[in-house]
Amino acid sequence: MPILHTDNPDITSLKGLHLYHAGMSNCAMRVRLALEEKGLEWTSHEVDLGHQENLEPWYLAINPKGLVPAIVHDGVPVTESNDILRYLEENFSEPALTSSDPALAAEAWEWLDLAASLHMKAIKTWVYGTTGGASKKRSDMDRYGDIQPDKSLVAFHEKSLDGFTVQEIETARQMLVDVFDRMEARLKDHSFLVGNEQSIADIAWVPQYVLLGMLGFDFSPWPGIVAWATNQQKRPAYQSAVTAWLPKIPGWALRKGIQAMRLWRKLKAGLSARRSRPVS
Ligand SMILES: N[C@@H](CCC(=O)N[C@@H](CS)C(=O)NCC(=O)O)C(=O)O
Fold first, then answer.
1. Among 55, 59, 67, 80, which is best to mutate for testing ligand 1, by the most ligand atoms less than 8 A from CB?
2. Where are the chain's structural domains?
3. How far does the centroid of ligand 1 lie from the alpha carbon of residue 152, in Å?
4. How far apart are CA 65 and CA 191, in angstroms?
């Protein structure tokens, strides 16, 4: 579990549960959901990903990979959303988000691991691919390459600057379709992904429904998933963990906004590259 051992007094002096997060981040959403389902008190620290606040030294001291979410619990940083969920389940066991039946608990963790394994190759690839590109500028990449210890993240952001091919986006979509087919097989006649209660499995997948749905992924072929998500949205924890943190604009407007912002960045980068090219 990525627990950071630090003697940085700005971190060690933090008492209670502190969450470093961003509204639209699906990984942060699942941690907020777990905190709210467990009724825990937590202090919010929103990290502005648009302005790359996640790559500032104060945040890298909490999460050296510069990713949200991270928590600091009584001065101890824990990173990676799945590990944070495990940490919360171990340290704040009531109400439990995993069954006391070991087989059901294992099944729930599997759903969580599946979400993690698809995060970059399916979810992020589809999101970045369909909204038109990169969250980093080419001019940021040298510094990013230097500070980012996880080289698969560097490769992903390089790739997103070059642009995903139609085939890559389709492969990502197909991976998601395969999972949603599996989810549908379960949810067409069950209210929860595992067992008869809300669990870490539902918490792992609700954020994908929210994010992908907002960005135009069509869930209509899976009515069981839609019904499950509709029930999830009625939970008080959903209101405080998801609704409260989402932009208050319709999905289509959000999509257009992201596309326009990314196009503008590309144009600006292209113009400054032309300006700095030596005249021959
Ligand atoms: N494996 C990480 C992934 C976290 C992640 O990718 N977070 C994104 C937001 S969804 C982020 O912080 N992106 C900022 C960046 O890449 O610079 C987890 O599960 O916590």
1. 67
2. 9-91, 102-245
3. 12
4. 36
| 102-245 carries CATH number 3.70.10.10 | no
Cα–ligand 1 centroid distance for 68 (angstroms): 5
Per-residue pLDDT tens for 130-165? 987 677 888 899 999 999 999 999 999 999 998 899
Low-confidence ranges of the chain (pLDDT < 70): 1, 133, 265, 269, 272-280
Edge-to-edge, what's the strand order for the sheet holding 70-73? 43-46, 17-21, 70-73, 76-79
Q: Which fold has domain 9-91?
A: Glutaredoxin (3.40.30)
Say what the pTM is.
0.91
pLDDT in tens, 49-77: 989 999 999 999 999 999 999 999 999 99
Evaluate whether 169 touches 126 at the Cβ level (below 8 Å).
yes
| Neighbour-count burial of 57, counting CB atoms closer than 10 A to its CB (0-12 exposed, 13-18 middle, 19+ buried) | exposed
Atom of ligand 1 nearest to the CA of 47: 12
Which residues lie across from 70 on neighbouring strands?
20, 79
